[in-house]
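Pilot study result, target chain (653 residues):
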Amino acid sequence: MKKFTISMIIFCFCVSFTFAQTNNFQPKKSQQEVSIKLNNNNNNNNSIQARSGSDCIFSDDFSDPSTWIAEHDETACSLDWEIGTGLSAGGSFAITTIESTTADNGFAMVDSDEYGGEEGGTEVEDSWFTTASSIDLSNYPNVVLQFETWYRSWTFEKCWVVTSTDGVTWPELTPDSEADPSAGIYEVFPGISGEGGEGLDDNPTTWRINISPSAGGESQVWVRFHWTGTWGYTWFVDDVCIIEQPADDLVLNYGVVSHTGTGEEYGRIPMDQVGNSMAFGGEVFNFGVNNQSGVSLSMDMSLDGNTITTGETGFTMYSVDADGFYSVEETDGYIDADESVYFEMSMDNPSNSMGVYTNDFTITSDAEIDGTENFNNNMQTREFEITEDLYSLDGIGVYENADITRMGTGSFTDATDGFMIMAYYELDQATDVAGLEILLDSYAYETPLSAAGGEVVISLRDTADVNAETFNPSATIVESDFYMVSQADIDNGYLQLEFDSPESLPSGAYYACVEMYSNNNQADIYVLDDETVPQPFGASLIYIPGDAVYTNGTASAVRLKLGDGANWGNIGIEEDALQAVSVYPNPSNGIININIEDNKEYSIEITNILGDIIILKEINSNNSIDLSQFGKGTYLVKVSNSELSKTEKIVIE
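Predicted structure:
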């Protein structure tokens, strides 16, 4: 199922987002894993579907490359768009090929990643392709450019659609340029381009841009797709079509359900953490020619299929102010053409029973009601579950058709050992945390990248201790022992890991963290990431040893298990069998002691935080080892033989 999206600026959620301590996080370029749907039921209510029945005034499926002319700025770069069949992204961070309905006929692609090389180029690339002939739109004053596309962004780039009425006059564009529709300059992905790691949800996505300001009613129009940027990923384009802009067409871009009021939308919320109220909202765009009156957002809520409320309309409507924020209250119910508005409502906590809650949002106006021509993009759905004790940022297993990908020890350079994934949680009430549940990629992928033999450590961290500039991996509230991932864990698709005893936490904000060790990619570990619902940038973070903390992922499947964890968890199985082996003191001034209570032979392997082996020896009795020569820092001490294995993380001060 393809997602249909209107190209427009979405500035912010109206709900406030107070994540000040993470405002210096940056993304980290990674190899993008293929996004998959966990359920193939073709019922993704988070998508706005492309309308059927709109005849193309002009169309091109790229089966004949000669209908386009590809060029570049020779003073800036030598990168060209490619048009044809059998194309795919190259480079060190290749994204998947567009899965267009007519991709076999050909498509267009600009591959900035391959052009930039492994470390990235420095050129401000400037490449475009243009219709070889003009298009007659003289009988169509209101027109929309529609195309299928697939795209992922990096940090310095913008994608453009440009129109010209003479085929000669074209603007000079860079990633610092601004859109100017009256001059035929349209930014294709506002809010996505330049945001490292952001991209489209569905491959492909049907994208629409209103080009009426520069092309409507013109007897000859040339259309250009223009790429500008430095070492991006790849942009694909296929199936270009120009259609008439509909007269009446409100688009509900998304609905919001947030119990925190700070932007995060959790898939599962324990009953005692919901709080006294919840925030609901929706973002609406008037894509039609006509201004709309009597605009109203309504919401139906059900629990496990049983109706709780119907036609709730207590929303306040806001418009966009001069600075691009939703702040000016609207009370007249009018939306002008090409205007965006936001609806928001706070309700007393309606979630007094456990189960899956479904919120169906619908936007209507005097001209657009159920049954009118373009009403199929007036609805959105959000789901969440109220649980007894499981708290999850992700909604895998709750959302009707979760859109997921994966991230792990093989996703980034230097992330093989000590790589961390963190998920953000707000506690409304003080509680005990027994441990974490972690979904491995084997939970959803037929061919998992996770393998038995890797090791993990789970921890809880105060958000004040998680920052990009001075992050200390040892600054934890509580941390588990090492746990070796077994084949049974891979087969199950998840880990349920406990701390030595439940950790009592006051109300506040925390990160749940999983730290992974793959033995230099010999036993990789990949964790699922839920991309179904957009989340604030600080909701999911990663840490790369020796590097920094970055914002990556959307809703990492690293979950909190509240309470005492009775009859739950699988950590400690192997460690209990090695109680006769001890490594101390921790922290140490450089000298560590390894005591064993039997006469068996053990291998001692000590590595630094980068995964480099600094000591490798065999012992069959108590030993002392001096690590002071290697400097202060964190080291892993692995004691093992053919039967058992135990790893300790030692800090040298």
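One observation from the pilot: The chain has four domains: 3-7+44-244, 250-388, 403-562, 577-652. A full batch analysis is planned for the follow-on phase.
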